[in-house]
């Protein structure tokens, strides 16, 4: 009986419920795929309120891992009281797909271009300025979107737990922190065995769940549903990451930026937060959240939400593309 227990549908239910309670609805749109040649298309699944925005738009970009609604489930309610929240699944995650058999994997630039196209396709969003927040891999995409779209299209930017300066040396240091027996970063980021998933939880969390409540059969179920079924697609996506190469050069951007980091993050250690701040000319605001790891938005959502809301509400400026009082 125990071996048939699965928590994935339960977590999925609660994540979807938070979105629905916040007035968001799930939709999908077909868009051109930038890297696929003439006629190539991709599908983007997203959560958003119906109709045109009555509040300032806010785009939440998830990291490498479960679907977007899982990763932002603790933010959607508080943020939706002040913003028109849009939560897409990036290409290759959740319900978003691209022609992986015939086209190269999406880079961060490709993901950003598709998000820009998504914003242009949503009702009332053609010329609206949007705030953007990205966590981990989503921070790479959020940064690229802000840089390429410019301040007329993208307003304040939140970069959470996202090492824009990651290099091969950082990957080697990560493997050293993980201990002996790992052949590559992908063995941990895309776990195939309970030991690998347990190690990922240990490195990503300040307070990882104890072994007593994470027996191997539960971890195998998570691996099967979140990784095994999508492994080929996820491996393809890893190959598209350009951070740490000459294709991803970090330069200052003109938008106001908030950097948020967990002080116990072992995937991207907190000292990298200060390096990212320096790379952005030292003008970005930096908030380190104590007693959290790689996902402070889940480990201490109350603190994370306050930091993020304080920044976004203080940074919000009237959108010149909107007339009247609706901002």
TrEMBL record:
Domain AB hydrolase-1: 58-306
Domain of life: Eukaryota
Pfam families listed in its UniProt record: Abhydrolase_6
Keywords associated with the record: Hydrolase
This protein's record includes keyword Kinase: no
Record keyword Hydrolase present: yes
InterPro entries recorded: AB_hydrolase_1, AB_hydrolase_fold, Meta-cleavage_hydrolase
GO molecular function per UniProt: hydrolase activity
Name of the protein described by the UniProt record: Catalytic/ hydrolase
């Amino acid at each position: 009986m125990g071996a048939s227990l699965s928590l994935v549908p339960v977590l999925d239910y609660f994540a979807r419920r938070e979105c629905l309670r916040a007035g968001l609805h799930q939709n999908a749109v077909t868009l051109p795929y930038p890297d696929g040649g003439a006629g190539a298309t991709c599908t983007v699944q997203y959560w958003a309120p119906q109709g045109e925005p009555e509040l300032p738009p806010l785009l939440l970009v998830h990291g490498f891992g479960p679907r977007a609604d899982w990763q932002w489930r603790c933010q959607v309610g508080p943020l939706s009281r002040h913003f028109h929240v849009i939560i897409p699944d990036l290409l290759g995650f959740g319900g978003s797909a691209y022609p992986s058999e015939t086209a190269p994997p999406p880079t961060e630039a490709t993901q950003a271009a598709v998000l820009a196209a998504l914003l242009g396709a949503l009702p009332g969003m053609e010329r609206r300025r949007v705030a953007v927040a990205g966590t981990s891999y989503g921070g790479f995409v959020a940064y690229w979107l802000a840089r390429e779209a410019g301040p007329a299209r993208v307003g304040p930017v939140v970069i959470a737990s996202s090492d824009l300066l990651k290099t091969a040396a950082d990957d080697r240091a990560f493997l050293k922190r993980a201990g002996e027996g790992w052949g590559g970063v992908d063995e941990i980021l895309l776990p195939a065995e309970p030991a690998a998933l347990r190690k990922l939880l240990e490195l990503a969390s300040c307070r990882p769940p104890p072994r007593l409540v994470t027996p191997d059969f539960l971890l195998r179920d998570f691996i099967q549903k979140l990784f095994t079924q999508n492994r080929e697609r996820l491996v393809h996506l890893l190959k598209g990451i350009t951070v740490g190469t000459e294709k991803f050069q970090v330069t200052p951007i003109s938008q106001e930026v908030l950097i948020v980091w967990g002080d116990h993050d072992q995937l991207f250690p907190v000292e990298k937060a200060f390096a990212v701040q320096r790379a952005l000319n030292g003008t970005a605001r930096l908030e380190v959240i104590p007693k959290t790891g790689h996902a402070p938005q889940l480990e201490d959502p109350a603190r994370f939400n306050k930091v993020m809301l304080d920044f976004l509400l203080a940074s919000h400026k009237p959108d010149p593309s909107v007339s009247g009082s609706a901002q």
